[in-house]
Please model this.
Amino acid sequence: MKRAIAFILTGVLFFALAVPMGALAQKKVTFTLWTKEGEVTGGVLEDIVELSKEFAKSRPGLTIEVVSYGVEELRQNFQAAAFAGQGPDLLWTVSDHAGPFVAMKIIKPVDNIFGKDFLKEFVRPGLECVELDGKTWGVPISVGNHLMLLYNKNLLKTPPKNTDEMIKVGKELTRDLNKDGVPDQYGLVYNLNEPFFFAPWLGGFGGWPLDGTKPTLNTPAMVNALQFVHDLKFVHKIVPVECDYDAADALFKEGKAAMLINGDWSLTSYQTPEVRKKVDLGVARIPMVSQTGLWPTPMTSGIYFMLPDYLTGEKLQIAKEFVEFISSDKVQLRFLEKHMRLPATASALKNPKIASDPILKGSADQMVVGKPMPTVPEMRAAWDAIRPNQEAVMAGKMSPKNAAKAMQDACEKLIREMTK
Amino acid sequence: MKKESSRIHSFFRSGKGDSPAKKLLIHLILIMASVIAVYPFLRVVAISLRPGSQLLSTDLSLIPSNATLENYRTLIFEKDFTIWLWNSLVVSLTTVIVGIVLSASAAYAFSRWDFPGRKQGLVFLLTTQMLPPSMLLLPIYVMVVRLQLFNTYTGMILAHSVGAVPFSIWLLKGYYDTIPRELEEAALVDGASRLEAFYKIIIPLSTPALGVCGLFSFMTSWSEFMMARVMLQKADLFTWPLGFQKLLDQFTTQWGVFSAASVLVAVPAMLLFMYSSKWLISGLTLGGVKE
Amino acid sequence: MIPLTWEIASRGLTEAGRILVMLAVGVAVIEALAYLILHKWLKLKNALPFMLMLPAFIAVVALVIYPFLFNLQLAFSNMSMYRFKEFSVGLSYGIQNFLDVFRAPVLQNVTFAQLLLRTVVWTAVNVFFHVLGGLFLAILLNRPLRGKAIYRTLLTIPWAIPQVIAALAWKNEFHYQYGFINVLLQKLGFAPVQWLSDPKWAFVAVIIVNIWLGIPFMMVIILGGLQSISPDYYDAAQIDGASGFQQFRAITMPLLKPVLTPAIILGVVWTFNNFNVIYLITKGGPMEGTDILVTSLYKAVFEFYRYGFGAAYSTVILIILLIFTWIYLKVTKGMGEVADA
Model:
């Protein structure tokens, strides 16, 4: 043991003393890109690393350091970095971050950096998500991130046209196969307690969480939408008693759920050979709400480049060129083909591949009725106000009417404190 | 009556007089406790052996019927996992050395001298543990920028070891206190200096406590996330808690690979626990006292 | 993918080596200076203990003092989302921030008093079971027993598993339909429990997880303490005819006290400030039913950007812990014994 320690220490000391560094005098630039992409299915992160290497070849001496963080970690870390005045040179992140970053004055508007013509290349809904105070605060990488109805053709031949039909087939498909009193196949599954998954229904009943920066949560539309999701669980019983994202995912993958509400990010994961054994995937719009005749409106957003406010000189130039590189048709189509992400530029969106692929077509079709997610920082307050009360309704502990009122009160209070 | 008391007596101390029935009972209790301790981990192992990437399954068996090592292969050959593990090992083991060096001698001062400010010092050490960690992010980032500690382990290792130092000092002081002063006094009479007495008598007698301190420092450092995410901004410097962020995603986590990573990350810590348990039972501390 | 090359591996070692060299040099410089100043110049009687303490002390102060002062400054500022980089500092802001902690709900519905009560329950229940469970298992393991080493290894596994992983593993076990706990409950003839959607049960769930996580630590600490107690004491007590329980009270507990007092205080502080378990399993929900002080602090700062308020809030939390420690030490006189041993 002693000898081992001595050996290790000697080795360590040897390395400490033999440091032949700083011999390279060539001018080097390290450009740091923070991305929210992880090493998830499809390897988006690996692709980014590859693309950045490809890009760096054009500039001798340039190294692009791609650093991946979780969405929340990226936001918090960037705030701290901007506060301290030193951090990443470019952000690759979700549109929700634009709101707080703008309020904190830690990112730059991109209008003057890229010029009007460049921004015109992007589809309107993509830009809308990052427009605040008449300026544009990000450059879209891909659009969508919206929920849609996925169904298993092995269990359900055609998707329901409206919610009445959805409840009807849902009841038929919710079955207790092993007769233990608890169903083990469900008509519909989705993340029941998550406000993001509730938003489409809210829109389908004619409501929306914010009007500008004002909360509009205590509305008849909210009451009706809450009543609707409540009834799915307590009256019609076509959803599981407890169902979070992973449970819904597992049930669908095991062929134990006929319909699933999930986002475009999940599409590739239901087409792997393993899952195909049990699931024949179909994609459609979330069914029209029978009571109102409106289509549910999933929130659309996307993934964006944002530029830190401290970015200047050469780094700013590199950032600009890198953004242009990723916005090129070649890269945009690569993301479409490899990762099923809808491109952000109008020219790439016209690609025939989207129309010919039934799944991409379904996804694009759903996006048409989607609504851009509000960018204002007040949205955070709305999410947090909806969540506990939605949970209470889904636990049968609060009436939709009281919940809507509680949401409105909580949201107003949170906004007051946030904007103090 | 006498017999009864000796039975209880032995329950609290030695098992020489244990009847077979009681031994069986103790074994049963320990087996049950062990199952509870291990079961959640075994479930993680089960997920790591399952093909595909889902987290939940209606299948409750610990070894799934279609078990595969595919997730481990992906993790080791397609992810940066080996780098994260190596970096974490370097950081944690260095932290252990730094932590022990700093605390062993300080604890000795607290144990053997009654100097002014001693009590206050001990309480101060405790208060350092009371700062709510989430408040540290902003100031630490500012410190890191000012001292230019980005992408080095220096700041992290110092921070980790200092995080563990207060606990180590308290623990070691408690142990030193149980070592009779006569041992050192005898050495002093023989002409040893105070420091020699410390290194030659106290340190060897404190191996079990030093072991626990080392373990503790290791665990503090091994899964530390906040400092790491502030200081390390290069992919090849990532420690595993940072690397795991890449595997976790709000919606599209590959649970199979993530679980495989979890299993492998728990292994070094477990090995360390197994190894250090030898020190814990050695009972060296009071070996010299009996005479 | 980045392969683990020799270059990367050696870079880590190089830096580790550099740190150890730095440490050695740093300690040597500090000690030399301290020797000259304390011993030669001031001729202090206690120069040696101060010298022994100094490196650790300097390191701790250097790390803690700046964040502490920074936090204090923020507590007296109006820093928020709209005043992020250009906030101002003033006494009136501070008073406002501290009043806000007590005046209005900290989050949506829960007030400071409710959160404090819940945190106290959370801490007390957890630490109580940590010590009880740890003591019980340590006593069993302190006996000559076949397979002791195996038990000990298995029982420390919850400590060896990083908290992130343990929390995620447990979260699944509380799942209504898939979780092992409900499956077991149903097999035993009970109704399944909605662990994660009912606030009361969710609180029970996070407590169970944290108890599971914390027992091994106490067990190891207590086992270490038990093994340092000389058998002579028990032999003597036995000759005097003391019963087992009397021995436990008269010998085991008092002799464990020097180890237990700091362990309990630290256990309380860590549990009080434990953020991981609750955040990873319930995020404080449902209906804010499992939020404790530190999780609500995190939300106030990172979700609502209330930096000034958060700094004041964290100062209040710190003060509560200080008061607790002070009372605990007074009541148990633990400090006296620990310090005067």
Summary: DSSP finds 13 helices and no strands in chain B.
